[in-house]
Every structure is written in structure tokens, then in C-alpha cells.
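Quick start: read one record
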Amino acid sequence: MNLFESIREDTRIILERDPAASSRLMVLLCYPGLHAVWAHHINHWLWCRHFKLIARLGSQVVRFWTGIEIHPGATIGRRLFIDHGMGVVIGETAIVGNDVTLYQGVTLGGTGKIGGKRHPTLRDNIFVGNNANILGNITIGENSRVGAGSVVLRDVPPDSTVVGVPAHIVYQSGKRVLITDPREINDPLSDVIIALADQVKSLQCRVERLDGELHPTLPVEPASGLVAEQEERAQYRSEQQARADFVANGEGI
């Protein structure tokens, strides 16, 4: 793809994804995400040809003007859309696939000073909400979505939606994912939640046992016996009522 085809493709994708983009000229002049991506192509070309100092200086200039920091060593695919863009950081060994959308404040960062591949890999057609952090050498599968403010520390399978701190799967292949074990969330408080649930269950069993000892269940009589007893009581009440009527009418005097 030549330069002019790449420019047309990048502007077209922004017009398709952003309802606020009303014209091609507006996209070309007013979208810092687009400027940052184009500048990264130049800086990445320099980085791969060992002009690393010049490439880093170029990335710092772009950071100053756009608020977006993309390391020259990062690998960026086609049709990347950085919406608003302020505060976006993409690390050196990050790999971003095609048709990816990043909102402001997104970080594709590392988790320490380890060498080698230390930044995430985003496959094709991924949406990352604002202020989300994707950290470490992990992979986000195709057609996945990362909720705003999430912190992703583990691999995400394709066709998934993750949210939370740390992030966990809530939708996969269009179906709601129910969490049955708190350990699946991998939250530091998971062990505390599990211990509290076990304690509540133990106390509930104890209360039921004590309630059974204080109020033992009475034996239930057969249904036929209950019916006979009810008939005898009704007959007795009718006899008493007849006697009361007899006395009230003076017939018993």
C-alpha cells in the first residue's frame, strides 16, 4: 500500500467509527490520534534501521504535540483508531493488530524490568475502553473488548469481553459468563470472600441443627385420621349449639 492509499484508508476508518467526524478535512486537521499513527510509521522505519536516537526524539516530539506516546519499536497494524488519544501509551515490544480502537488513557505497558517481549499483543478487531491498562506479555484475542478502567493481567481468549480490576471475563462468544468460584476473578480478596462464605455456611448449618433440637418435628397423623377427628369436632359443636338453642327457647324448663 502506497502513502496516499494509507492516508485514504486511515481517514475513512475514522469517518466510519467516529460519529463526531463530519468531514475528511476535519479528520486530517483535528485528530491527534491520526497524526500520532502517521508519525509512528516514520519513527518505526527509523528504529528498524538503527537510527534509534532520532526515532526516540521524533516520538517525544509527537508526544508533546498530541499527548500520545508510541514507542518507535512498537508494531502497529493497519486502521488503528486512537480516539481523543490524550494519555495513550504503547510500549516498545507491544504488537497491535488491524482494526483496533483505543480510547484516551489506554496503556499497553510492562510489569517490570524484564527483557525481551514484555508488552501485550492485541489481535485484530479489538476495542479498548478509556483508562484501561493492559500489562505484561499477554495476548488479547480477536474480536475482544476491554472495559473502561480495567486492568488486564492475563491472556484474554477471542470473542470475549473483560472488565474489572483485575479484569475477568463477563461475556464470551456472545453469552454471559457466570462466576461460580471467586478464585476465577483472581482478586487479592478472593481468599477472604471464600473464607467468609464457608463461615456463613457453617453457621447456617449450626443454627438449623440447634433449631431442630429445640423444636422437634411432631409426627404427622394420617390424612384419614385428621378427617375423622374434624368430623367428630363438628358434630360435637352442632350438638352443643342445639342444646343452647333448646334452653334459649325455654323448652328445657
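Residues 87 and 105 are 4 Å apart (CA to CA).
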